[in-house]
Specification:
4 helices; mainly alpha
């Protein structure tokens, strides 16, 4: 009885190569780092983290009175370095998506308010 009600449906899409609204993805250069070998990204992350920590300790340990300026410079340098690596084909990552950013911003805002409330108690 159940076999009688089960039906298979198929929809033929035709050839999409000739469709005028077909999105043709642009070819990107292959990244130098593959997902199967994560050694280089891990070493790069560790080296940059150690270098940034040592730099912050050295600079802020003296008579430097602009810690937010240092943070701003470090952020700009990181963004420029990552973008230049993407442009040269060394790394790849997804493009910015406004919908995902809006959804993540809601979660981050709630988490930041929760952490502020937990710290004030």
């Amino acid at each position: 009885m159940a076999d009688e009600k089960k039906r298979d449906f198929a929809i033929e899409m035709g050839d999409l190569r000739d469709h005028p609204n077909r999105h043709v993805p642009q070819s990107r250069p292959a990244p130098l780092v593959s997902r199967s070998n994560p050694v280089l990204p891990v070493i790069s992350y560790c080296a940059s983290s150690i270098l940034m920590t040592v730099t912050n300790k050295y600079v802020l340990g003296g008579h430097f009175n602009l810690p937010f300026f240092l943070l701003c410079v470090q952020s700009v340098v990181c963004v420029v370095a990552i973008q230049s690596c993407k442009s040269s084909g060394i790394i790849t990552y997804r493009d910015f998506n406004n919908d995902e950013a809006r959804k993540c911003m809601q979660v981050y805002t709630l988490l930041s308010y929760a952490s502020i409330g937990a710290n004030s108690v």
